[in-house]
Design goal:
Layout lengths: L1 E4 L6 H6 L1 E4 L14 H27 L4 H26 L7 H14 L4 H14 L14 E2 H6 L2 H10 L2 H15 L10 H24 L2 H27 L14 H6 L5 E2 L2 H6 L6 H6 L8 H7 L1 H4 L4 E2 H4 L7 E3 L4 E3 L10
Parallel strand pairs: 3-6, 4-5
Antiparallel strand pairs: 1-2, 6-7
Helix pairs in contact: 2-3, 3-4, 3-10, 4-9, 5-9, 8-10, 9-10
């Protein structure tokens, strides 16, 4: 076993509490951290080119007066490619996509413009998600809002209603997707510094520039008729993936004093076993337990890592069919140590 100190707590007592013992197989993960710029370039080409071609076909379908149904049919594959673009952006955030830091930054901003997300601001919240996920005392960074059973039962009716609405699939996946990418991502995350604020401003200006150029050449109505459904559907799929990565039957949450990073990764992050085509479009993010074990492993090496280390394959997979039932899970039960549904409402007898 290998002792390892995680995090950067503020006092000696916290430092002693966060000294972890990592398993013997953990150092093997480093073998798969090295980025391959040739693979990164191939992924950019096989994702950006078809995405742009689909945009051209959708523009032509509208300009040629075809039924909007045809455009919406093309929205489906375009949204799938946009999800994949977000995964490539996600690797740039972790600095794992290209070997060069400059290349990760350049393409991070380029892809961030396409997925309506700022590189530095999202990095701020997402990296905090990695060091705090499943820690009940450090919620609020890049998480799906999750309450414990006790917290829910002791909350005012107003908060309970708000939480119920937030966790409803129509809100979380539908309205939540457009709200997150069109509005929430246009504003800086709380407590960020000047660098992140400037990143938000720069990304917003890039998006505005795209809108103005598109308005001049294809018309703002055509642009919105394409961009909104593509962004909405891709956003919903992305939120679905993120939800299934951490909100599933069993799972793992712990208070700060008992929180263990290995358990958070292996038990609190899913191995979402998707069909081959969906796994490709989602950039192997289904191997999420591996991603949380070592976020510097690029998406194109996750499967290789999975095949090489037996303990990673031993984790029970979350299948597509099984994941459908996960939306009934709403609260973390600290007594039973598992995700549970909302408590049944008691009806008053006449």
């Amino acid at each position: 076993m290998i002792p390892h100190e995680s995090g950067t707590p503020g006092n000696d007592e916290d430092k002693q509490a966060l000294v972890r013992v990592w398993p013997d197989w953990y150092p093997l993960l480093k073998t798969f951290r090295n980025p391959d710029s040739r693979k990164a370039i191939r992924q950019l080409i096989n994702t950006l080119v078809p995405y742009c071609c689909l945009w051209y076909l959708m523009i032509r379908s509208i300009q040629s007066g075809h039924s909007y149904t045809l455009t919406l049919i093309l929205v489906l594959p375009a949204s799938a490619f946009l999800v994949r673009l977000f995964i490539l952006f996600h690797d740039c955030v972790h600095g794992s996509f290209f070997e060069s830091k400059g290349a990760n930054t350049f393409f991070g901003y380029l892809l961030g413009m396409l997925v309506f997300t700022s590189l530095d601001d999202w990095r701020f919240s997402h990296l905090r998600h990695h060091v705090s996920y499943a820690n009940l005392d450090s919620r609020g960074f890049g998480d799906v809002w999750t309450m414990t059973v006790k917290e829910f039962e002791e909350s005012p009716k107003r908060i309970q209603l708000q939480y119920r609405l937030y966790r409803h699939p129509m809100v979380l996946l539908g309205l939540g997707a457009l709200f997150n990418f069109l509005l929430s991502n246009r504003l800086p995350t709380r407590t960020v510094k000047r660098k992140e604020r400037m990143s938000i401003l720069f990304t917003n200006l890039l998006i505005l520039g795209i809108f103005l150029v598109a308005s001049k050449f294809i018309g703002w109505k055509t642009y919105l008729l394409i961009q909104l459904p593509v962004l909405g559907l891709a956003g919903a799929a992305g939120i679905w993936l993120f939800y299934m990565q951490h909100q599933f039957e069993g799972g793992y949450w712990a208070r700060k004093s008992q929180w263990e990073p290995i358990r958070a990764a292996m038990e609190g992050s899913s191995f979402y076993k998707l069909p081959t085509i969906l796994n490709w479009f989602s950039g192997n993010i289904g191997y999420h337990h591996i991603h949380h074990l070592n976020p510097r492993i690029p998406n194109y090496r996750l499967r290789q890592c999975f095949d090489a280390i037996p303990v990673l394959r031993a984790k029970e997979p979350l299948t597509l069919i099984k994941s459908l039932s996960s939306f009934r899970l709403k609260l973390w039960d600290e007594v039973r140590q598992e995700m549970v549904a909302f408590p049944v409402r008691k009806t008053k007898r006449p």
